[in-house]
Amino acid sequence: MKKLINDPADVVKEALRGMEAAHPGHLRVDHDHAIIYRKDAPRQGKVALISGGGSGHEPLHGGFVGTGMLDAACAGEVFTSPVPDQMMEATKQVDGGAGVLHIVKNYTGDVMNFEMAAEMAAADSGIEVQSVVTDDDVAVQDSLYTAGRRGVGITVLLEKIVGAAAEEGRPLQEIADLATRINSQGRSMGMALTSCTVPSAGKATFDLADNEMEVGIGIHGEPGRKRLPLASAKDVASLLVDPVVADLPYGKGDSVIAFVNGMGGTPLIELYVMYNEVAQILEQAGITVARSLVGNYITSLDMAGCSVTLLKVDDELVGLWDAPVNTPGLRWGC
Amino acid sequence: MKKLINDPADVVKEALRGMEAAHPGHLRVDHDHAIIYRKDAPRQGKVALISGGGSGHEPLHGGFVGTGMLDAACAGEVFTSPVPDQMMEATKQVDGGAGVLHIVKNYTGDVMNFEMAAEMAAADSGIEVQSVVTDDDVAVQDSLYTAGRRGVGITVLLEKIVGAAAEEGRPLQEIADLATRINSQGRSMGMALTSCTVPSAGKATFDLADNEMEVGIGIHGEPGRKRLPLASAKDVASLLVDPVVADLPYGKGDSVIAFVNGMGGTPLIELYVMYNEVAQILEQAGITVARSLVGNYITSLDMAGCSVTLLKVDDELVGLWDAPVNTPGLRWGC
Amino acid sequence: MAEALTLDAFARWLKQFAETVHDNVGLLTDLDSAIGDADHGTNMDRGFKAVVSVLDGNGFESPDALFKKVGMTLVSTVGGASGPLYGTFFLRFGSALQGVEAVGTQELGKALRAGVEGIVTRGKAELEDKTMYDAWAPALEAFDRAAPEGTAAALAAAATAAGEGRDATTDMLARKGRASYLGERSIGHQDPGATSATMLLESAAATLA
Amino acid sequence: MAEALTLDAFARWLKQFAETVHDNVGLLTDLDSAIGDADHGTNMDRGFKAVVSVLDGNGFESPDALFKKVGMTLVSTVGGASGPLYGTFFLRFGSALQGVEAVGTQELGKALRAGVEGIVTRGKAELEDKTMYDAWAPALEAFDRAAPEGTAAALAAAATAAGEGRDATTDMLARKGRASYLGERSIGHQDPGATSATMLLESAAATLA
Ligand SMILES: Nc1ncnc2c1ncn2[C@@H]1O[C@H](COP(=O)(O)OP(=O)(O)O)[C@@H](O)[C@H]1O
Ligand SMILES: Nc1ncnc2c1ncn2[C@@H]1O[C@H](COP(=O)(O)OP(=O)(O)O)[C@@H](O)[C@H]1O
Ligand SMILES: [Mg+2]
Ligand SMILES: [Mg+2]
Ligand SMILES: [Mg+2]
Ligand SMILES: [Mg+2]
């Protein structure tokens, strides 16, 4: 394992110290609870947004704390959902009287831990909590009898857009409905050229030959749905975009935010090559790209690979996307 | 070689198409010359900033084109300096009557190609051109009889700060002097956990065993000054920061911008772990961190590793650093 | 009938399991690498290390107080899927012992059942979803069947049945948890949670009789 | 004295070199991987492919026009260190032939020297800096020494001397170009630019006699 770390057991703790040191004007970190707060939380009268999940997906979620996005992020161990105590504590700290939205990615562990937190918060403090569970990964079969689809790329876009709506002062129910709508209008699919290595495991989660890739992977180094021979950027783009477009489906005349995301070990030059292919496929399908995002935003440690997320948007969503945001990971307009 | 690309010969061309598609509101790309322009260039009366170099260092330089930073970036082939025609063309296109500053990283090829461009531009068009050559890499011995030090991390900070000064309308000579001063107050050092792979070469530039790292590497996949056993983040931080601090030297009471940069294949979580160590070393040395930057900004394709850059700053430089910037790679204040 | 189980015996059970988990971090994580995210070993190890230090640092009035504390500790330190599942197991296990004077075979069986029902309520797993429930369910049945022969026999039977359930997960197609993302490709791999659950029962058989 | 060199012969030289470079892309890039940035092969190949298409697409009035065009083409397509260096070489080589009626051995020798002086002016390399100049310098001397025996002999001697110079770079510590960043570690590796320069002279020996 080759990583810039000290003891694998300390990675999350030390990264949080690093984040705090690097963003002293913007963030506050509760190291006992591994919670990253917006420096000026709680904001009176504003619905507060909390997210969280296993670490290893940086900048998600801690890097999306700040004006116009999250009020707090709870960091779990690498790829391990945070515990209910964290979400409870964060909920109490950020509530400004207007209630709290929990943004949860659909993984069994995350859902259960957030559920327990919401139950405890309701019993304990009477803070109004609503939850949205993201499940945009079309690589996974959706069914009542399974764990359902994973929450992946849409989480980034949702946190940004819903964050802007919260900043406008909209009430909790409206915020929760908006979040649900965004999730329902977004789809993603990812692939890997290499496995990631979980620090505490010390070796790659799966092995891929030099001429192989995994298609349909998530963001936890879990193997994908199928292993295919290595393909060109053009073919990879089709493998990702086609099932995404077919699933909602997106059609001629639709407007989208197109998000090409790197898995942490993929350099920007390759992501732009990918975006070039994705943009061409969308153009041929008559789908308009209203906005785009290209970069490493929801990652899987050092995995090389990428994912494509499309979110169907209208003027309202585009307006909220364009609204000012000031976080370590996404910043514009202020 | 595992990369999200098509034909290795087309990587740069296609990445430029992707950049153009991803940033339609901000950038304009001349594909014949592989030049990325700020959409509103030329700006009358403003000194124009041009940089350029081999590709493979993204977001540098194309990702730093925009308000408050570069007016144009010339993209060479991967790790190959652009040709004089590109710099000449860019110089003509961006000059707004106040002259043009060429920002050149100190590599034999870059220096020679920019020199030829400046000679040609002077002969051809009478545009006033000044050049600054960055050479901040303390891993390399500086001497009159060598190629001198490489230009690395300081280039990012310089482009930002000088870009802000140009935006203020300062004259060319002042801009050039400021650039020289910044370069003289900045030092860097880098290391690699893995080699990068040049697409056209198809295999790693050098081989590192699982328990080895290269210290003193540049950004072109060139091997470093020494190969050492893999070390902890804490020890790596010392290996990088100590020679940097000793070189200028930086001392008690100095204020710096501290920049922890990833080489392209290193995820953010590790860079924050590194920043935590760097911040502690600086604190112990009595050096104040006025501002910090943590992320993959001047990369070496898919190389895993990092570099540390320190720039000694005063209030003027901090003010210029804080000034609005709007580029794909760095954005704040607007 | 055997002696009632003591607080000391319960602590020995948990400590023995903590040791077993620690010795098998690699195994559990490897199983989780194949069909999950390579953290089940470290998750369990983190949680049960915390449990041991809670046991070492506190005196408990009663088994139910002890197990509720264990459950809370797991919920607060493990995270992931196994944290709420094992946490809920021990919380319910403890609740079932509330007010119980002497924990004999029958009471132990009831507590185990309450704990497993907690797991099902939380995780909504069904039989053959390829989860820890596939070890727990046959274990409960085996326990009840052997209960007339006393605690030792019942726990031994439960542990054996859990092991068979664990082994049976190998051929199942996962429908819950992370392994479900693999679809058909989950077949052929043993479930990590069923593996740790079996160890928990094996530790019980070794310490609670 | 031998015949004067024709435009056709010069074109054959450049095409033969282009072919040699193309066949040796891997070798040149491997050499550059060891002490540089793994692009010398592709740089040269890109440049000389462009040269060949310029040669195929144009008629030239005179050798100096041809070589200036070759130099400009290299400057405009290669980039890196080798672009300006080889570009300047051919620009100066062409200039030296300006107004020359018939290119005999002496004129060729002068042109080579002018080209190499261009390389030195651009790159400021000195002997034993471990650059292409370490192949060029002994080649010029050998050429002049053998010049009385005619073009063929002079070029053959130059190519041989270049090869010896190239081989000698292996033991040198680099002081110019990227290899200089390696310090002591540059010792033991042959310089890529000296290797391509030797090939250029070998191609000349094979085609210009
Ligand atoms: N819905 C569920 N019901 C019961 N057990 C489950 C469920 N989901 C997952 N599990 C169990 O949890 C185990 C994985 O635990 P762990 O790796 O610690 O958590 P995570 O999956 O969050 O990384 C699986 O092997 C399985 O036995
Ligand atoms: N200052 C110099 N003078 C002469 N030759 C040089 C100089 N610097 C580099 N070279 C030559 O250039 C070669 C490298 O060329 P190339 O790899 O194409 O460019 P780059 O070093 O920019 O990647 C070296 O092997 C060396 O022979
Ligand atoms: Mg997990
Ligand atoms: Mg090069
Ligand atoms: Mg797991
Ligand atoms: Mg080179």
In short, what is this structure?
With 334 residues, chain A is of the alpha/beta class.
Written description of the protein model:
The complex is a heterotetramer, with 2 copies of chain A (334 residues) and 2 copies of chain C (209 residues). By secondary structure, chain A is an alpha/beta fold. Chain A has 2 domains: 10-184, 3-Layer(aba) Sandwich (Rossmann fold); 186-312, Hypothetical Protein Tm841, Chain: A,domain 3, CATH 3.30.1180.20. Chain A is 32% helix and 23% strand. The longest helix of chain A has 18 residues, at 108-125. Chain C has a single domain, classed as DhaL domain (Serine Threonine Protein Phosphatase 5, Tetratricopeptide repeat, Alpha Horseshoe). Chain C has 9 helices and no strands. At the B-D interface, β4 and α3 of B face α2, α3, α4 and α5 of D. One adenosine-5'-diphosphate sits between chains C (32, 36-37, 39-40, 43, 80-82, 85, 119, 123-125, 131-133, 176-178, 191-194) and A (80-81, 108-109).
Give the SSE map.
The complex is a heterotetramer, with two copies of chain A (334 residues) and two copies of chain C (209 residues).
Chain A: H1 11-22, E1 27-30, E2 35-38, E3 48-55, E4 72-78, H2 84-94, E5 100-105, H3 108-125, E6 129-134, H4 154-167, H5 172-184, E7 186-192, E8 212-215, E9 226-229, H6 233-247, E10 255-262, H7 268-284, E11 288-295, E12 305-312, H8 315-322, E13 325-326, E14 331-332
Parallel strand pairs in A: 3-4, 3-5, 5-6, 10-11
Antiparallel strand pairs in A: 1-2, 2-4, 7-8, 7-12, 8-9, 10-12, 13-14
Helix pairs in contact in A: 2-3, 4-5, 4-8, 6-7
Chain C: H1 7-23, H2 25-35, H3 40-57, H4 63-77, H5 82-96, H6 105-123, H7 133-146, H8 151-169, H9 192-207
Helix pairs in contact in C: 1-3, 1-9, 2-3, 2-9, 3-4, 4-5, 5-6, 6-7, 7-8, 7-9, 8-9
Bound molecules: adenosine-5'-diphosphate (2 copies) and magnesium ion (4 copies).
One adenosine-5'-diphosphate (ADP) sits between chains C (32, 36-37, 39-40, 43, 80-82, 85, 119, 123-125, 131-133, 176-178, 191-194) and A (80-81, 108-109).
